[in-house]
Design goal:
375 residues; alpha/beta; Multidrug efflux transporter AcrB transmembrane fold; Alpha-Beta Plaits; 2 domains; 63% helix
Length: 375
């Protein structure tokens, strides 16, 4: 733990770093693989839409029911001919959810449940959700998501530039695709809580990305007036300077959400928490990944395709080649010594010195010669 804390402090102070931009093709490949898996899962399994989106009926029984969840699920499926979702609430009552049920069918199902559960029919509460209302909710959710994405792109294009806006948009689509794909693969129900969770994690991912972009914008001001570093190297500095902050905020956010998902939904059986907690957990992790490994490296790719940045890179490399030919120290990669390079150094290695330095006069120079002068 001590070494880990020391590593975090050195990352924060810029003493070491990791070359995220140089290895961007690896991160792109990992993201493409995960995204394809999510899309295949979505195409094969589809989404398990909740009753709010496709209509149906929800039956609530009296308190302290003796019937188990599995028994009630069997009774509901036999009475309706559709799949049923049964949850036992804190007061002992059962919440039975059946999709694709109209008013006439719900009355018949209510009578059947009354007989099977040995409960008077008038004590079973039935709430109906029409399919047209569910379609309206779904359309409003998609409209809200679309408006959010458009506003985000416009804001980033104005506050920063269109390349950063495009990179942030790609990162957001990446996060949405992975989260929706996970929902399809695990079969969790999609409810309005899921939509709320999606919008929440998109805002979190955007915040993390904007923090890096703001640092990048500040450090690349008047970049063409210098010949020390390329745009990609300065982009890498921006990621490393905000890395500890991104990791800390992500871990702190994942801890309570993980408690809701794994303890609340898994151990305690509070299934109603699964819809929002899964979207938050997957989305927060994907958002942290995309802000570090996708958004900023993609901005570096787009910027270094510009003629000005190409010319700058040539000048920087030419200056370094000239310095190397003269045997002078070469300044490279934003004055950072990378963590993977340190693995090859002994523990007692002297700290790295970057940039030109003045050599002190040797104490033995001229010793043993007349007047201390060179021959």
């Amino acid at each position: 733990m001590g070494k880990l804390g020391n590593l975090g402090a050195r990352l924060h102070h810029g003493e070491i770093g990791y070359d995220f931009v140089k290895n961007r093709k690896l991160w792109y490949g990992i993201s493409i693989l995960i995204t394809i898996t999510a899309i295949v899962g979505l195409a094969v399994r589809g989404l398990h839409m909740g009753i709010e989106f496709q209509g149906g009926a929800v039956f609530t029984t009296p308190k302290n029911m003796s019937a188990s969840v599995s028994q009630a699920e069997t009774y509901a499926e036999e009475a309706s001919g559709h799949d049923a979702i049964v949850q036992k609430l804190g007061d002992g009552s059962l919440r039975i959810q059946i999709s694709g049920t109209d008013t006439a069918a719900s009355d018949q199902i209510k009578e059947e449940l009354s007989k099977d559960l040995d409960v008077p029919a008038e004590k079973i509460n039935a709430d109906l959700v029409g399919p047209s209302w569910g379609d309206q909710i779904a359309n409003k959710a998609w409209q809200g998501l679309g408006i959010f994405m458009v506003l985000v792109v416009i804001y980033l294009a104005i506050a920063f530039e269109w390349r950063m806006a495009l990179a942030a948009f790609v990162a957001l689509v990446h996060d949405i695709t992975i989260t929706v794909g996970v929902y399809a693969l695990v079969g969790f129900e999609v409810t309005p809580g899921t939509v709320i969770g999606l919008l929440t994690i998109l805002g979190y991912s955007l915040y993390d990305t904007v923090v890096v972009f703001d640092s990048l914008k500040e450090q690349t001001r008047d970049i063409t007036k210098q010949t020390r570093w390329t745009y990609g190297e300065i982009a890498n500095r921006s990621i490393n300077s905000t890395l500890v902050r991104s990791v800390n905020t992500t871990v702190v956010a994942l801890l309570p959400v993980g408690g809701l998902l794994f303890i609340g939904g898994g151990v305690l059986g509070a299934g109603m928490l699964n819809d929002i907690s899964l979207s938050l957990f997957v989305g927060l992790a994907a958002g942290a990944y995309s802000s570090i490994f996708i958004a900023t490296p993609l901005v570096a790719d787009l910027k270094e395709a510009e003629p000005q940045m190409k010319s700058l890179k040539k000048r920087v490399l030419a200056k370094r080649a000239q310095a190397a030919a003269k045997g002078e120290p070469v300044e490279s990669d934003a004055d950072l010594r990378y963590a993977d390079d340190e693995a090859d150094e002994p523990d007692d290695a002297a700290p790295a010195v970057v940039g030109p330095r003045s050599q002190p006069a040797s104490r033995t120079r001229g010793r043993g010669r007349p007047s201390g002068k060179r021959r």
